[in-house]
Amino acid sequence: MVKICCIGAGYVGGPTMAVIALKCPSIEVAVVDISVPRIAAWNSEQLPIYEPGLDGVVKECRGRNLFFSTDVEKHVSEADIVFVSVNTPTKTQGLGAGKAADLTYWESAARVIADVSKSNKIVVEKSTVPVKTAEAIEKILTHNSKGIKFQILSNPEFLAEGTAIKDLFNPDRVLIGGRETPEGQKAIQALKDVYAHWVPEDRILTTNLWSAELSKLAANAFLAQRISSVNAMSALCEATGADVSQVAYAVGTDSRIGPKFLNASVGFGGSCFQKDILNLVYICDCNGLPEVSEYWKQVIKINDYQKSRFVNRVVSSMFNTVSSKKIAILGFAFKKDTGDTRETPAIDVCKGLLGDKARLSIYDPQVTEDQIQRDLTMKKFDWDHPLHLQPMSPTTVKQVSVVWDAYEATKDAHGICILTEWDEFKSLDYKRIYESMQKPAFVFDGRNVVDAEKLREIGFIVYAIGKPLDPWLKDMPAVV
Ligand code: NAI
């Protein structure tokens, strides 16, 4: 029986391995992590991450050929294929701080593999890593290997949170990069055989190591760039009376461009886009390519601009001050169908409003109060370290309350900011909400989910990203 071990039981390691176990009953899969609470949660009824469809997959395989454990050494030593899916945060200190990927967790995982291995292994980079990481990992493994042979493969993960199970069941492609030697090709074939249990052969792409590593960074940079491009257009739409949804539709029907990923919003979030572009920027700098580095940096700058533009719109519309006003925040996760708040634009928007002394009442169907308080007090980039290494939040933000109902959040509020596109926000009883709010009552829709015309009929003053402005807002331009 082939044995797989995955180091890192996070948003990628957990769902990916659960699907491999489901689709390959003849393979034994162990997912290991240094975080005791995370593994305990994977072994409980309440999984550590929310992902549609994940519960069913885990329930079917757990205890059969899928195991979650903190015994890293045992499972690594027994495995034929070791996936490494640990976090690769942005460095906060030293050389490359604020840009380069911090490979501390990756390096420690590689050292464990070298220390405990007693047989030859295939080591698979699942984490998103800088191009050429495989070379560094190879050096660590071969210098500590006691004669054992390792083959390194790059197999970046393209799943998106919120649709992870669907993406894993039916991927656009699986990418496997390896050495162009006979041993490298044999290792590629072994991993191909795993995916071939359910992925059609023509969707399994094989490349050299560096193309596979760089393709993941490139794909994320291209995706984020589409969002920043449409968001840049949204500002121009507001200034000219164009409607960004109409522009995006007209642009996206060009088959060379395509319709996906063209929704204007308050900005992109998630654990990957910013981190991976910063990493790309750093790699360009290190390779003496400042123009290329500047080009990609601009994608992040537009994202920051979009978030501060939104905050300024809120404050300037509400008579240039939100001091002591209650603002309801609907949605805190970085997108719908996930409880993940890493790099969510809600953090910057909330901090911006708190900076103007607003009182916030936050409701998100999947995010806990503890997480929100943590996010609002944590330093930039600290979020991407394992939970037990994150600083404890010393104080809670007193002007913030977290509630479990949209009606409770909006009661007596002066304004509402919609920051995540949860489906339930489309069908709230806005008439009831309007009646319970202070007047004039404002809605700032950062995801274009509400029917602005209907809300205007009720009496709301509505701001929707990239849409023709309400006459009220026209006189109050958002200054950035
Ligand atoms: P995560 O933070 O949810 O999970 C990483 C896990 O690794 C944590 O549970 C941590 O405790 C564990 N870990 C760290 N060092 C360890 C060690 N030495 N031994 C054992 N466990 C260790 O991170 P996530 O989101 O799963 O991301 C992992 C990688 O996958 C990152 O490189 C990320 O860029 C990439 N990725 C993430 C995607 C996403 O949507 N979250 C999508 C595609 C790639």
Automatic annotation (TrEMBL):
Residue span(s) of domain UDP-glucose/GDP-mannose dehydrogenase C-terminal: 328-452
Entry-linked SUPFAM superfamilies: 6-phosphogluconate dehydrogenase C-terminal domain-like (SSF48179), NAD(P)-binding Rossmann-fold domains (SSF51735), UDP-glucose/GDP-mannose dehydrogenase C-terminal domain (SSF52413)
Keywords for this protein: NAD, Oxidoreductase
EC number in record: 1.1.1.22
Heme is among the record's keywords: no
Lyase in keyword set: no
Transmembrane segments: none
Catalysis performed (reactions): UDP-alpha-D-glucose + 2 NAD(+) + H2O = UDP-alpha-D-glucuronate + 2 NADH + 3 H(+)
UniProt pathway annotation: Nucleotide-sugar biosynthesis; UDP-alpha-D-glucuronate biosynthesis; UDP-alpha-D-glucuronate from UDP-alpha-D-glucose: step 1/1
InterPro entries membership: 6-PGluconate_DH-like_C_sf, NAD(P)-bd_dom_sf, UDP-Glc/GDP-Man, UDP-Glc/GDP-Man_DH_C, UDP-Glc/GDP-Man_DH_C_sf, UDP-Glc/GDP-Man_DH_dimer, UDP-Glc/GDP-Man_DH_N, UDPglc_DH_euk
PANTHER family per record: UDP-GLUCOSE 6-DEHYDROGENASE 2, UDP-GLUCOSE DEHYDROGENASE/UDP-MANNAC DEHYDROGENASE
Family per similarity comment: Belongs to the UDP-glucose/GDP-mannose dehydrogenase family.
Protein's name in the database: UDP-glucose 6-dehydrogenase
Organism of provenance: Xanthoceras sorbifolium
Source lineage: Eukaryota, Viridiplantae, Streptophyta, Embryophyta, Tracheophyta
